[in-house]
Structure formats: structure tokens, C-alpha cells
């Protein structure tokens, strides 16, 4: 999953053509672990360099203004890493909702939604140094187009260029989803064909259960014993073939 998100379906650095001197820092936390193909291709298509944090800095964690959950602690440490690298902008999207298989309008947790707001106070970030578009995909991908056109405009581009970059990001994100779900169907066929093999589905939020920073190596403990671990969102598909 990590290789697909951050390598296979992210743009190749060799194809990057800079059209701006600005550097955008992206803290590796929360929604980035779900929709990085979208974020990365948006900036890549604009011609703006986007870099991901590489460490969790304790100084940033110490700046929390409340007792938050572990993933939000990680976010604070990742933001500090970006500030230490002196990027021009910090990308802190207001990540509100995603598509759901249920007939309800479901939002992500308040702490995930609130990242740009409590981080602004914790780090004393000025609004002119933050990029905080609303990401609201729960009712379709068009809902957030205007917010990303605003981001493009803030970076010095025309709104039409932002719209084209948005389309590129959405296209690549859909490619990732298609390939990921196909891999899930392949895994389910493998489960059916190997009834004596042990498979474990790992459930949890992607930024918590699926990342080495947060999952404490638990999936690796299973795989070291010859057990296959499957991320739940790979197979959570109403059209998938479910083994009996």
C-alpha cells in the first residue's frame, strides 16, 4: 500500500518541470496517507515542488496545546520538520469527508478536520504561509475544485491552471484506487485458493494502522510468523468477490 501511494502512483521527480521558486512542505500525517497521489500530482502538474516531511521532531510535539491522539502528535512533529526545513508554505488541508459505502454523509474525526486550525495557533503560523484547502470528497470530486483553484492562485497561477492541475490529481488518484481495489480482488481470490493459510485483515485508520510511524510494527510481527496481513480498505469493496 505504501509503495503504491508514495511511489508507483506518485509523480516521478525526473519528470518535474519547475514553474515556480516556491517549495511546499507536506507534513506526512493524517490525510496524506490516503490521498497522496492526488496531492502530489496537483503540485507536480502546477510546477511547484512539494516535499514530504522525513522525521517527527520532538520540539513540534511539545508545542501541542492539548492532549491529542498519537496521530495528531505525529502531525505536530512532522509540521516542525517542515518548518525546520524552511519551506515557503506548509500544506495543511481541511480534510472533511470522503466517499462512504453507507447511505449517510460521514465526516472524518474532528481532530483530522481541525489540523490547520490548531496547528496555526500551536506554531504561530501566519495565514500567508499556510495552504489549507477544503478537501470534501464525500459527495463527489467536484466539491473541492474551487478550493484548489484558490491554492493555485495563492501560488501565483491562474485559476484555470489550478483547475487543470486538479483534474490531473483526481485522475491519478482514481488510477490508484482502481489498481488498489484490483489488488484486493486478487488477494481475495488467493484467500479462497489457500484455505489452510492464515490471513489477517488489519483494520484501522490509514494514518494509524497502516504506517510504521504509528502501528508500532505490529503488522511486521505477524508477517514474520508467516501470516499474510491485508489492509482492510483494499478489500472493503461491495463489488469484490467475498470468499465463503
Give structural notes:
This protein is 46% helix and 11% strand. The protein has eleven helices and eight strands. The protein has helices at 2-8, 32-46, 58-61, 70-84, 110-113, 115-123, 145-154, 159-193, 206-209, 218-223, 232-235, and strands spanning 23-26, 49-52, 89-91, 94-97, 130-131, 134-136, 199-202, 228-231. The strands form three sheets. Strands 2-1-3-5 form a four-stranded parallel β-sheet, sandwiched between helices. A two-stranded parallel ribbon has the order 4-6. It is globular and about 60 Å long. The protein starts with a helix and ends in a 9-residue tail after the last helix. The relative contact order is 0.14.
Task: Give a short account of the largest sheet.
Answer: 4 strands, parallel
Number of distinct beta strands: 8
- Whole-number radius of gyration? 19 Å
Q: What is the count of helical runs? A: 11
Shape: globular
The residue fraction in helices comes out at 40-55%
Give structural attributes:
disordered C terminus, four-stranded parallel sheet, alpha/beta, globular, two-stranded parallel sheet, 244 residues, single chain
Q: What does the secondary structure layout of this molecule look like, with pairings?
A:
Elements: H1 2-8, E1 23-26, H2 32-46, E2 49-52, H3 58-61, H4 70-84, E3 89-91, E4 94-97, H5 110-113, H6 115-123, E5 130-131, E6 134-136, H7 145-154, H8 159-193, E7 199-202, H9 206-209, H10 218-223, E8 228-231, H11 232-235
Parallel strand pairs: 1-2, 1-3, 3-5, 4-6, 7-8
Helix pairs in contact: 2-8, 7-8
